[in-house]
Amino acid sequence: MKFKFLSTLALAVIAAQCAPETDIIKDNVENAKVQLKSLVEASEAGDTVRIPSTFKDGEIVYVPTDDWVSGFFAGTLWYMYELTGDEYWAEHARKQTEVLDTIQYLKWHHDIGFMIYDSYGNGLRLKNIDGYKDVIVNAAKSLSTRFRPRAGVIQSWDADKGWQGTRGWKCPVIIDNMMNLELLMKATEFTGDSTYAKIAISHADQTMKNHYRPDYSTYHVVDYDPETGEIRGRCTAQGYADESAWARGQAWSIYGYTVMFRYTGDRKYLERAEVVADYLFNNPNMPEDLVPYWDFDCPDIPDTYRDASSAAIIASALYELYGFTEISLYKEKADKMIESLSSSAYRAAQGTNGGFILMHSVGSIPHGSSIDVPLNYADYYFLEALIRKGNIEKGLAPVNY
Ligand code: GLY
Protein backbone atom coordinates (compact mmCIF):
# COMPACT_ATOMS: atom_id res chain seq x y z
CA MET A 1 0.00 0.00 0.00
CA LYS A 2 2.80 2.36 1.00
CA PHE A 3 4.66 1.56 -2.25
CA LYS A 4 1.49 2.26 -4.25
CA PHE A 5 1.09 5.65 -2.55
CA LEU A 6 4.70 6.64 -3.22
CA SER A 7 4.58 5.60 -6.83
CA THR A 8 1.36 7.55 -7.40
CA LEU A 9 2.95 10.60 -5.84
CA ALA A 10 6.09 10.19 -7.93
CA LEU A 11 3.99 9.91 -11.07
CA ALA A 12 2.10 13.04 -10.16
CA VAL A 13 5.37 14.94 -9.68
CA ILE A 14 6.74 13.73 -13.04
CA ALA A 15 3.46 14.61 -14.76
CA ALA A 16 3.56 18.10 -13.27
CA GLN A 17 7.15 18.55 -14.43
CA CYS A 18 6.30 17.44 -17.96
CA ALA A 19 3.04 19.38 -18.29
CA PRO A 20 3.37 22.40 -20.56
CA GLU A 21 3.45 25.59 -18.53
CA THR A 22 0.07 27.29 -18.64
CA ASP A 23 0.29 30.09 -21.15
CA ILE A 24 -0.80 32.96 -18.97
CA ILE A 25 -1.43 35.29 -21.90
CA LYS A 26 -3.55 32.79 -23.82
CA ASP A 27 -5.47 31.88 -20.70
CA ASN A 28 -6.22 35.53 -19.98
CA VAL A 29 -7.29 36.22 -23.54
CA GLU A 30 -9.69 33.26 -23.53
CA ASN A 31 -11.14 34.51 -20.26
CA ALA A 32 -11.38 38.10 -21.50
CA LYS A 33 -13.26 36.99 -24.63
CA VAL A 34 -16.07 35.59 -22.48
CA GLN A 35 -16.18 38.45 -20.00
CA LEU A 36 -15.91 41.33 -22.45
CA LYS A 37 -18.37 39.85 -24.93
CA SER A 38 -21.05 40.01 -22.26
CA LEU A 39 -20.05 43.59 -21.45
CA VAL A 40 -20.23 44.55 -25.14
CA GLU A 41 -23.69 42.99 -25.42
CA ALA A 42 -24.92 44.80 -22.33
CA SER A 43 -23.49 48.14 -23.41
CA GLU A 44 -25.10 47.89 -26.84
CA ALA A 45 -28.45 46.54 -25.63
CA GLY A 46 -30.21 49.92 -25.43
CA ASP A 47 -30.95 52.54 -28.09
CA THR A 48 -27.48 54.06 -27.79
CA VAL A 49 -24.01 52.67 -27.15
CA ARG A 50 -23.33 53.07 -23.43
CA ILE A 51 -19.89 53.22 -21.81
CA PRO A 52 -19.41 50.74 -18.95
CA SER A 53 -17.17 51.91 -16.13
CA THR A 54 -17.73 49.59 -13.17
CA PHE A 55 -20.14 47.10 -11.56
CA LYS A 56 -21.88 48.04 -8.36
CA ASP A 57 -24.67 46.37 -6.37
CA GLY A 58 -25.24 43.88 -9.18
CA GLU A 59 -25.55 46.55 -11.90
CA ILE A 60 -23.18 47.75 -14.60
CA VAL A 61 -22.52 51.47 -14.12
CA TYR A 62 -22.35 53.51 -17.33
CA VAL A 63 -20.71 56.92 -17.66
CA PRO A 64 -21.37 59.93 -19.88
CA THR A 65 -18.91 60.67 -22.67
CA ASP A 66 -17.26 63.53 -20.74
CA ASP A 67 -16.29 61.34 -17.77
CA TRP A 68 -12.54 60.85 -17.46
CA VAL A 69 -12.89 57.05 -17.89
CA SER A 70 -14.96 57.20 -21.09
CA GLY A 71 -12.15 56.07 -23.43
CA PHE A 72 -11.01 52.99 -21.58
CA PHE A 73 -13.66 50.54 -22.73
CA ALA A 74 -13.05 51.47 -26.36
CA GLY A 75 -9.33 50.98 -25.70
CA THR A 76 -9.94 47.63 -24.03
CA LEU A 77 -11.80 46.43 -27.14
CA TRP A 78 -9.01 47.70 -29.39
CA TYR A 79 -6.55 45.71 -27.29
CA MET A 80 -8.75 42.63 -27.69
CA TYR A 81 -8.51 43.16 -31.44
CA GLU A 82 -4.72 43.44 -31.13
CA LEU A 83 -4.57 40.27 -29.01
CA THR A 84 -6.88 38.14 -31.16
CA GLY A 85 -6.97 39.63 -34.68
CA ASP A 86 -10.74 39.03 -34.55
CA GLU A 87 -12.71 41.73 -36.39
CA TYR A 88 -15.54 41.37 -33.86
CA TRP A 89 -13.48 43.38 -31.40
CA ALA A 90 -12.51 46.06 -33.93
CA GLU A 91 -16.14 46.52 -34.94
CA HIS A 92 -17.29 47.11 -31.35
CA ALA A 93 -14.17 49.11 -30.46
CA ARG A 94 -15.03 51.45 -33.31
CA LYS A 95 -18.56 51.94 -31.99
CA GLN A 96 -17.27 52.69 -28.50
CA THR A 97 -14.67 55.05 -29.96
CA GLU A 98 -16.98 57.05 -32.17
CA VAL A 99 -19.50 57.80 -29.42
CA LEU A 100 -16.70 60.01 -28.09
CA ASP A 101 -16.68 62.18 -31.22
CA THR A 102 -17.48 65.50 -29.47
CA ILE A 103 -14.85 64.95 -26.77
CA GLN A 104 -12.14 66.30 -29.07
CA TYR A 105 -13.50 69.75 -28.16
CA LEU A 106 -13.66 69.19 -24.38
CA LYS A 107 -11.76 71.90 -22.50
CA TRP A 108 -13.04 71.76 -18.93
CA HIS A 109 -10.66 69.10 -17.61
CA HIS A 110 -7.33 67.58 -18.58
CA ASP A 111 -8.33 63.94 -19.04
CA ILE A 112 -9.01 64.36 -22.74
CA GLY A 113 -5.59 62.69 -23.20
CA PHE A 114 -6.81 59.45 -21.65
CA MET A 115 -10.21 59.68 -23.32
CA ILE A 116 -9.09 60.33 -26.87
CA TYR A 117 -5.76 58.56 -26.97
CA ASP A 118 -7.00 55.23 -25.56
CA SER A 119 -9.90 55.19 -28.02
CA TYR A 120 -9.01 57.08 -31.22
CA GLY A 121 -5.27 56.65 -30.66
CA ASN A 122 -5.48 52.87 -30.55
CA GLY A 123 -8.01 52.83 -33.40
CA LEU A 124 -5.66 54.89 -35.56
CA ARG A 125 -2.67 52.71 -34.71
CA LEU A 126 -4.46 49.44 -35.43
CA LYS A 127 -6.79 50.36 -38.30
CA ASN A 128 -5.59 53.70 -39.65
CA ILE A 129 -9.19 54.91 -39.85
CA ASP A 130 -9.83 58.11 -41.81
CA GLY A 131 -10.44 61.13 -39.65
CA TYR A 132 -9.00 59.70 -36.42
CA LYS A 133 -5.79 61.69 -36.80
CA ASP A 134 -7.80 64.92 -37.02
CA VAL A 135 -9.65 64.01 -33.83
CA ILE A 136 -6.33 63.52 -32.04
CA VAL A 137 -4.99 66.87 -33.23
CA ASN A 138 -8.21 68.68 -32.28
CA ALA A 139 -8.06 67.05 -28.84
CA ALA A 140 -4.46 68.19 -28.43
CA LYS A 141 -5.57 71.74 -29.31
CA SER A 142 -8.28 71.53 -26.66
CA LEU A 143 -5.86 70.23 -24.03
CA SER A 144 -3.36 72.96 -24.91
CA THR A 145 -5.91 75.62 -23.88
CA ARG A 146 -5.28 74.48 -20.30
CA PHE A 147 -1.56 75.33 -20.45
CA ARG A 148 -0.61 78.04 -17.96
CA PRO A 149 2.65 79.50 -19.32
CA ARG A 150 3.84 81.26 -16.15
CA ALA A 151 3.68 78.03 -14.21
CA GLY A 152 4.70 75.95 -17.22
CA VAL A 153 2.00 73.36 -16.57
CA ILE A 154 -1.34 72.14 -17.86
CA GLN A 155 -4.09 72.87 -15.34
CA SER A 156 -5.67 69.52 -14.46
CA TRP A 157 -8.95 70.53 -12.90
CA ASP A 158 -10.98 73.71 -12.96
CA ALA A 159 -10.92 75.22 -9.48
CA ASP A 160 -14.27 77.01 -9.43
CA LYS A 161 -16.84 74.25 -9.46
CA GLY A 162 -17.66 70.75 -8.19
CA TRP A 163 -15.79 69.34 -5.20
CA GLN A 164 -12.60 70.89 -6.54
CA GLY A 165 -14.23 74.31 -6.04
CA THR A 166 -14.28 73.71 -2.27
CA ARG A 167 -10.49 73.32 -1.92
CA GLY A 168 -9.29 76.90 -2.42
CA TRP A 169 -7.05 75.93 -5.35
CA LYS A 170 -6.13 78.23 -8.25
CA CYS A 171 -4.37 75.90 -10.66
CA PRO A 172 -4.38 72.32 -9.39
CA VAL A 173 -2.10 69.91 -11.21
CA ILE A 174 -2.32 66.20 -10.43
CA ILE A 175 0.33 63.59 -11.11
CA ASP A 176 -2.26 61.79 -13.27
CA ASN A 177 -1.80 64.61 -15.80
CA MET A 178 1.46 62.96 -16.93
CA MET A 179 -0.78 60.44 -18.70
CA ASN A 180 -2.27 63.10 -20.98
CA LEU A 181 1.05 64.09 -22.51
CA GLU A 182 1.24 61.30 -25.09
CA LEU A 183 -1.66 62.93 -26.94
CA LEU A 184 0.39 66.12 -27.28
CA MET A 185 3.54 64.30 -28.40
CA LYS A 186 1.51 62.52 -31.09
CA ALA A 187 -0.09 65.76 -32.26
CA THR A 188 3.38 67.21 -32.88
CA GLU A 189 4.38 64.03 -34.72
CA PHE A 190 1.27 64.31 -36.94
CA THR A 191 1.37 68.04 -37.64
CA GLY A 192 5.03 69.02 -37.35
CA ASP A 193 3.88 71.78 -35.00
CA SER A 194 6.23 71.66 -32.02
CA THR A 195 3.88 73.68 -29.79
CA TYR A 196 2.20 70.56 -28.45
CA ALA A 197 5.45 68.75 -27.60
CA LYS A 198 6.84 71.91 -25.96
CA ILE A 199 3.80 72.07 -23.68
CA ALA A 200 4.17 68.37 -22.81
CA ILE A 201 7.89 68.74 -22.05
CA SER A 202 7.37 71.85 -19.96
CA HIS A 203 4.67 70.06 -17.97
CA ALA A 204 6.83 66.96 -17.47
CA ASP A 205 9.80 69.08 -16.34
CA GLN A 206 7.78 71.17 -13.89
CA THR A 207 6.12 68.05 -12.51
CA MET A 208 9.51 66.39 -12.09
CA LYS A 209 10.72 69.42 -10.14
CA ASN A 210 7.67 70.09 -8.03
CA HIS A 211 5.64 66.94 -7.47
CA TYR A 212 8.23 64.68 -5.86
CA ARG A 213 9.39 64.08 -2.32
CA PRO A 214 13.03 63.19 -1.59
CA ASP A 215 12.14 59.45 -1.60
CA TYR A 216 10.61 59.84 -5.12
CA SER A 217 7.09 59.20 -4.01
CA THR A 218 4.81 61.80 -5.51
CA TYR A 219 2.24 64.18 -4.14
CA HIS A 220 -1.13 63.85 -5.74
CA VAL A 221 -1.89 67.57 -6.17
CA VAL A 222 0.38 70.59 -6.58
CA ASP A 223 -1.50 73.88 -6.68
CA TYR A 224 0.18 76.68 -8.68
CA ASP A 225 -0.51 80.37 -8.91
CA PRO A 226 -1.13 80.73 -12.63
CA GLU A 227 -0.23 84.45 -12.53
CA THR A 228 3.18 84.09 -10.88
CA GLY A 229 3.97 80.40 -11.36
CA GLU A 230 4.58 80.02 -7.62
CA ILE A 231 3.53 76.91 -5.78
CA ARG A 232 0.63 77.54 -3.41
CA GLY A 233 0.55 74.12 -1.81
CA ARG A 234 0.96 70.38 -2.10
CA CYS A 235 -1.75 67.98 -0.98
CA THR A 236 -3.95 65.04 -1.88
CA ALA A 237 -7.39 64.53 -3.32
CA GLN A 238 -7.64 60.75 -3.61
CA GLY A 239 -4.95 59.57 -1.20
CA TYR A 240 -5.01 58.90 2.52
CA ALA A 241 -3.26 62.14 3.53
CA ASP A 242 -1.44 65.09 1.99
CA GLU A 243 1.93 63.49 2.83
CA SER A 244 0.98 59.93 1.89
CA ALA A 245 1.72 58.02 -1.31
CA TRP A 246 -1.58 57.31 -3.06
CA ALA A 247 -0.94 54.09 -4.99
CA ARG A 248 -2.41 55.06 -8.35
CA GLY A 249 -0.54 58.34 -8.27
CA GLN A 250 2.71 56.37 -8.02
CA ALA A 251 1.49 54.22 -10.94
CA TRP A 252 0.79 57.27 -13.14
CA SER A 253 4.21 58.61 -12.17
CA ILE A 254 6.25 55.60 -13.35
CA TYR A 255 4.12 55.16 -16.45
CA GLY A 256 4.13 58.85 -17.41
CA TYR A 257 7.90 59.31 -17.30
CA THR A 258 8.52 56.07 -19.18
CA VAL A 259 6.28 57.35 -21.98
CA MET A 260 8.03 60.72 -22.02
CA PHE A 261 11.35 58.92 -22.46
CA ARG A 262 9.84 56.98 -25.37
CA TYR A 263 8.95 60.20 -27.18
CA THR A 264 11.93 62.39 -26.32
CA GLY A 265 14.87 60.06 -25.63
CA ASP A 266 15.69 62.37 -22.71
CA ARG A 267 17.42 60.19 -20.13
CA LYS A 268 16.25 62.24 -17.18
CA TYR A 269 12.75 60.91 -17.77
CA LEU A 270 14.02 57.34 -17.86
CA GLU A 271 16.01 57.92 -14.67
CA ARG A 272 12.90 59.30 -12.96
CA ALA A 273 10.89 56.20 -13.90
CA GLU A 274 13.69 54.03 -12.53
CA VAL A 275 13.89 55.76 -9.16
CA VAL A 276 10.12 55.50 -8.87
CA ALA A 277 10.48 51.76 -9.50
CA ASP A 278 13.07 51.62 -6.69
CA TYR A 279 10.68 53.46 -4.41
CA LEU A 280 7.89 51.00 -5.19
CA PHE A 281 9.88 47.82 -4.78
CA ASN A 282 11.75 48.90 -1.67
CA ASN A 283 8.56 50.04 -0.01
CA PRO A 284 7.91 47.95 3.11
CA ASN A 285 4.18 48.28 2.48
CA MET A 286 4.33 46.72 -0.98
CA PRO A 287 2.63 43.36 -0.42
CA GLU A 288 4.23 40.08 -1.44
CA ASP A 289 1.83 39.59 -4.37
CA LEU A 290 2.77 43.11 -5.61
CA VAL A 291 -0.83 44.32 -5.83
CA PRO A 292 -0.58 47.59 -3.86
CA TYR A 293 -2.84 48.71 -1.10
CA TRP A 294 -4.75 51.81 -2.25
CA ASP A 295 -2.28 54.06 -0.44
CA PHE A 296 1.24 53.00 0.55
CA ASP A 297 0.93 54.95 3.80
CA CYS A 298 -2.56 53.98 4.88
CA PRO A 299 -2.22 53.19 8.60
CA ASP A 300 -4.78 50.36 8.30
CA ILE A 301 -2.44 48.22 6.16
CA PRO A 302 -2.85 45.21 5.95
CA ASP A 303 -6.53 45.59 6.83
CA THR A 304 -7.47 47.83 3.96
CA TYR A 305 -8.24 47.69 0.25
CA ARG A 306 -5.95 46.66 -2.56
CA ASP A 307 -6.00 48.50 -5.85
CA ALA A 308 -5.71 46.13 -8.78
CA SER A 309 -5.74 49.09 -11.19
CA SER A 310 -2.43 50.33 -9.75
CA ALA A 311 -0.84 46.91 -10.24
CA ALA A 312 -2.03 46.74 -13.86
CA ILE A 313 -0.71 50.23 -14.66
CA ILE A 314 2.64 49.60 -12.95
CA ALA A 315 3.05 46.22 -14.67
CA SER A 316 2.43 47.76 -18.07
CA ALA A 317 4.93 50.56 -17.37
CA LEU A 318 7.53 48.08 -16.10
CA TYR A 319 7.41 46.07 -19.33
CA GLU A 320 8.17 49.23 -21.29
CA LEU A 321 10.89 50.19 -18.80
CA TYR A 322 12.40 46.74 -19.18
CA GLY A 323 12.44 47.26 -22.97
CA PHE A 324 14.51 50.44 -22.53
CA THR A 325 16.86 49.22 -19.81
CA GLU A 326 16.94 45.42 -20.11
CA ILE A 327 16.96 45.33 -16.30
CA SER A 328 15.49 41.87 -15.74
CA LEU A 329 14.09 42.81 -12.33
CA TYR A 330 11.51 45.01 -14.04
CA LYS A 331 10.18 42.14 -16.11
CA GLU A 332 10.25 39.78 -13.14
CA LYS A 333 8.21 42.22 -11.05
CA ALA A 334 5.77 42.86 -13.88
CA ASP A 335 5.37 39.12 -14.46
CA LYS A 336 4.67 38.61 -10.78
CA MET A 337 2.00 41.34 -10.89
CA ILE A 338 0.38 39.72 -13.91
CA GLU A 339 0.49 36.33 -12.21
CA SER A 340 -1.22 37.78 -9.12
CA LEU A 341 -3.85 39.62 -11.14
CA SER A 342 -4.53 36.45 -13.15
CA SER A 343 -5.21 34.43 -10.01
CA SER A 344 -8.66 33.91 -8.58
CA ALA A 345 -7.81 36.46 -5.89
CA TYR A 346 -8.18 39.27 -8.44
CA ARG A 347 -9.51 37.83 -11.70
CA ALA A 348 -13.24 37.33 -11.65
CA ALA A 349 -14.83 33.97 -12.42
CA GLN A 350 -16.46 33.90 -15.83
CA GLY A 351 -20.03 35.16 -15.83
CA THR A 352 -19.47 37.32 -12.73
CA ASN A 353 -18.22 40.87 -12.06
CA GLY A 354 -20.59 42.37 -14.65
CA GLY A 355 -18.28 41.15 -17.42
CA PHE A 356 -15.25 43.11 -16.21
CA ILE A 357 -12.03 41.12 -15.98
CA LEU A 358 -10.47 42.22 -12.71
CA MET A 359 -11.97 42.69 -9.26
CA HIS A 360 -10.67 44.76 -6.32
CA SER A 361 -9.83 48.22 -7.57
CA VAL A 362 -10.37 51.50 -5.80
CA GLY A 363 -11.59 54.73 -7.41
CA SER A 364 -11.46 57.28 -4.61
CA ILE A 365 -11.80 56.39 -0.97
CA PRO A 366 -11.94 60.02 0.28
CA HIS A 367 -14.88 60.62 -2.08
CA GLY A 368 -16.50 57.32 -1.14
CA SER A 369 -16.65 56.31 -4.78
CA SER A 370 -15.88 52.99 -6.49
CA ILE A 371 -14.35 51.15 -3.54
CA ASP A 372 -13.27 47.54 -4.03
CA VAL A 373 -14.92 47.16 -7.42
CA PRO A 374 -13.94 46.40 -11.00
CA LEU A 375 -12.84 49.47 -12.97
CA ASN A 376 -12.64 49.73 -16.74
CA TYR A 377 -9.13 51.20 -16.57
CA ALA A 378 -7.82 48.27 -14.54
CA ASP A 379 -8.92 45.98 -17.39
CA TYR A 380 -7.46 48.34 -20.01
CA TYR A 381 -3.97 48.41 -18.49
CA PHE A 382 -4.12 44.69 -17.70
CA LEU A 383 -4.65 43.83 -21.38
CA GLU A 384 -2.04 46.40 -22.38
CA ALA A 385 0.44 44.73 -20.03
CA LEU A 386 -0.35 41.32 -21.57
CA ILE A 387 0.35 42.68 -25.05
CA ARG A 388 3.67 44.14 -23.88
CA LYS A 389 4.64 40.91 -22.12
CA GLY A 390 3.79 38.93 -25.25
CA ASN A 391 5.85 41.27 -27.43
CA ILE A 392 8.88 40.98 -25.15
CA GLU A 393 8.60 37.20 -25.07
CA LYS A 394 8.52 37.14 -28.89
CA GLY A 395 11.72 39.20 -28.96
CA LEU A 396 9.90 42.38 -30.07
CA ALA A 397 9.85 45.89 -28.60
CA PRO A 398 7.23 45.91 -25.83
CA VAL A 399 5.22 48.84 -27.20
CA ASN A 400 3.74 49.27 -30.67
CA TYR A 401 3.03 52.96 -31.08
N1 GLY B 1 -7.19 60.13 -12.82
C1 GLY B 1 -8.02 59.81 -11.75
C2 GLY B 1 -7.67 58.57 -11.05
O1 GLY B 1 -6.63 57.99 -11.26
O2 GLY B 1 -8.47 58.15 -10.24
Q: What does the secondary structure layout of this molecule look like, with pairings?
A:
Elements: H1 2-18, H2 24-43, E1 51-56, E2 59-63, H3 72-84, H4 87-98, H5 112-127, H6 132-144, E3 147-148, E4 153-154, E5 171-174, H7 181-191, H8 195-210, E6 221-224, E7 231-235, H9 247-264, H10 267-281, H11 308-325, H12 328-342, E8 361-364, E9 369-373, H13 376-393
Antiparallel strand pairs: 1-2, 3-4, 5-6, 6-7, 8-9
Helix pairs in contact: 2-3, 3-4, 3-5, 3-13, 4-5, 5-6, 5-7, 6-7, 7-8, 9-10, 9-11, 11-12, 11-13, 12-13
Would you write up a description of this structure?
This protein has 401 residues and is mostly helical. The chain has a domain at 146-237. It is built from 13 helices and 9 strands. It has helices spanning 2-18, 24-43, 72-84, 87-98, 112-127, 132-144, 181-191, 195-210, 247-264, 267-281, 308-325, 328-342, 376-393; strands spanning 51-56, 59-63, 147-148, 153-154, 171-174, 221-224, 231-235, 361-364, 369-373. The strands form 4 sheets. Strands 5-6-7 form a 3-stranded antiparallel beta sheet, with no helix packed on it. Strand 1 and strand 2 (59-63) form a beta hairpin. The chain starts with a helix and ends in an 8-residue tail after the last helix. The relative contact order is 0.11. The model is unreliable at 1-21 (pLDDT under 50). Glycine binds at residues 68, 176, 238, 248.
